[in-house]
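Input chain follows. Return structure tokens only.
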Amino acid sequence: MITTRLSARPRSATAKVFPAPRRGALSLDIVRDVAGFQALQPFWDALVDQMSTRSPFLRWDWVSLWWEECRKEAKLVIAVMRDAEGVPHAIAPLMLASEPDPARKHLVTLTFLAGFGDAHGERLDLIVPAGQEKELTPQLCRVFKLLRHECDNVRLNHLPEESPNTPYLLAVLQESFSRAGVLNRQVCRFIHLPASWEDYEARHNSKWRNVLRRRRRAFTGEHAGIATQAGERMTIDEALKEFRVLHAMQWPSGVSSFTTDASWRFHQRLAAKWLPQKRAWMPLLEADGKVIAALYGFVEREQFFQFQTGWERPLAKISPGKLVIRWAIDCCIQRGLRVYDMLPSDYEYKRQWCDGARWLLDLEAFNPASWRATAFHALRAARRWLPRLASATVNLPNDLQDGHKPALRPAV
């Protein structure tokens, strides 16, 4: 297993990204209303295109749909660096909200837009053009000082550790807040995609290859299996309905937030936009005349992000979960993608498929003037000193047949 940091690369060796022409000195503006948020739409994705660590979770479609479907009581506080003509050159997508966690629900938290709750993003960051972080990020980070009196704490979830913005964010939190630092560090395992499926197979031992081949032969020969994509043999709406049922088979009620009402509305709307554009993919496996496995993910900068999966449990003998991942990897190789990212959580099956790792950070800091923050931190410290249960049980689905056994306990 290779652990490495993956540097962002343009689509071709000669591709270059040029920043928008700047007119005059830049000023910091905080957008607090929906009209101001909507006015950023023409500039948003153009700036994301220039980022070092861009991801589908920072795209306009994602954040704007999240705001419409999942915001609850959140308030916009989006920081924008503008030139003299009002053109944005960098954006800090932020909001003030309360986390759903019972212990934190009374805290007003300054966090990334779509940073937690239903349909939250997985790789979030400040939107700053690559190569301009040294100049623009410290100016953009002034927003944390300006908003300190409005929040009890800061929680910046799912920040790529390799982001050039990370040291500047840590510095401003340590300067302006108390107890600032990294709360969680979560691994994201990924595959360096080769030129062919045969090349990928060759990385594994003969037992792994033979077992997967035998199950694929059973899928095609004994069950009349067909590998397809949403929108080919069935409509996108039909595929989504099938996928929701399969996902619910994998995850018991209350464990996955993907099928909550708000999250499902969000993904129905997002998939309706992105699947026809090939910005989202839904590889499907059909057997015995019905869909038995599906996988849902997103394409961004020659990378595929595996977001959710689902499969028929009664067919565990042929491992439909593994077969749909195999099909998704093959699709990525055929398209010429370079990376297959399985996103956070360290399950054993991800270790078996992947040959690389990168990390996401949850940054945390507290407002020293907030009595709620002081009380929360004191209670948390007390709980850590209290005697703990001899063992903590994490109820996860029994995916041992498909190798879905957690390698690490989920982060607190």
